[in-house]
Amino acid sequence: MNDYSKKFLPKKSRGLPGWYNRVVQLAELADYGPAKGTMIFRPYGYAIWELIQKEIDSQIKEKGVENAYFPMFIPESLLAKEKKHVEGFSPELAVVTIGGGEELKERLVVRPTSETIMYEAYAKWVQSWRDLPILINQWNNVVRWEKRTYLFLRTSEFLWQEGHTAHATHDEAWEMTRWAMNMYTQVYRDIFAIPGYVGRKSESEKFAGADVTLTYESLMPEGKALQSCTSHDLGQNFSKVFDIKFQNRAGETEYVWQTSWGLSTRSIGALIMIHGDDAGLRLPPKLAPVQVIILPVDTDSEKLIGFSKEILLKLESRGVRAKIDCLEGERLGFRINKWELKGVPLRIEVGEDELRDKTVTAVRRDSGEKIKIADLSQISRVLEEIQESLLTEASELLNKRTLGVEKYSEFKQIMESRDKGFISAWWCEDSNCEAKIKEETKATIRCLPMDASKDGGSCIYCNKQASYKWLFAQAY
């Protein structure tokens, strides 16, 4: 353990919550806002979000979805139109009652999600089949008044993207619902290096107002599950309420079929927890604002700084995000510890030996391995290896902590243990069993995996006939 971490950072291996809050602040990802439950994104943390945005936004546009922006203030009457929707969000709503020093005639809800305000506009824009599909995404903030807040994971205000589409047929809507989840799955695995399970939420856990909710469930180090993103088949639930209808090619009037899907800055919380270690962050190269940090051993040596600048230019010409840290007054050990804590994937140390031999000494953040590199073109390959290594490590943990269970006594024992995780078990799909399991074990049904086979067995709780094995876990 380095001096920097000893002084400031608790060990992750001794307790995740204390480590997590400190590493977020020490790595300069975020800080607490002045209002309860709010969070300030510092530049380093926001840079990670920008890289996530860049990846998702390019895929969204390639699909033909366009970006737009809708107001954050929603008249309460709009939110109340869809009964299940408003019931689902009522406990979390922030409501504006006074504006310009006067009491408002109609209260305004601060956007918890945008279905209602967007669909009121869709109703005006759609008359004919020629107006479909509507494919719109927006990057925005939302407000949900969380009682228990946690930096990145649960804050009263957070950032996300939310896609909202309207289609002439259910087949088109379902294809979009599946496309969004497939896109998120690829982003989580290939960009975040975070494995997970894709599946359908139970009726009680699905999005308020949806027919079907698809989810990506990932495993955190404490053995708890995180709902990392969702994609919803909204059916015609909102279109009938908001009167979004069109004249089809046969001249008949129909209601549109809709979807919504989103991924938020909660994803950064998962990134921190899954890959971090006792010394701080470990960022996968594809999401690291700085992929390579270059450290001259002697910050007073013009020759070493000059050689460091040569290395920097060569790396940047190859598309590597690199930076030199030659800040005066900081010894080499302190600078090493600082960038270890910030999770930079690869560190290059430049001393007299490197200057003489025209080589670099690189140190991998994921494994601590030291590598002598003569050809800087090798750096990109090393970064790819680090990316793959982090995914492999997280996948091994997920596989190890996913257990098949047949007896409820074993189910309860696992959920009480330190080695808990996902449990695959038969469930009869009765909401009473679901509620009892949650009450007795704090475990919720996370999803029915998309690849689940309909075999048949006995429900883990009541022993009635069940068609599928569902995934259970305690949740953040």
Strand order of the largest sheet: 3-7-8-14-11-10-9-22-25-21-20
Mean pLDDT: 94
Subunit organisation of the chains: single chain
Q: Output the radius of gyration.
A: 25 Å
Number of helices: 15
Describe the protein.
Strand 23 (457-458) and strand 24 form a beta hairpin. The chain has an eleven-stranded mixed sheet, sandwiched between helices. The chain folds into three domains: 8-275, BirA Bifunctional Protein, domain 2 (2-Layer Sandwich), CATH 3.30.930.10; 290-384, 3-Layer(aba) Sandwich (Rossmann fold), CATH 3.40.50.800; 402-474, Translation Initiation Factor IF3 (2-Layer Sandwich). It is built from 15 helices and 25 strands. The model has no long low-confidence stretch (mean pLDDT 94). It is of the alpha+beta class and 476 residues long.
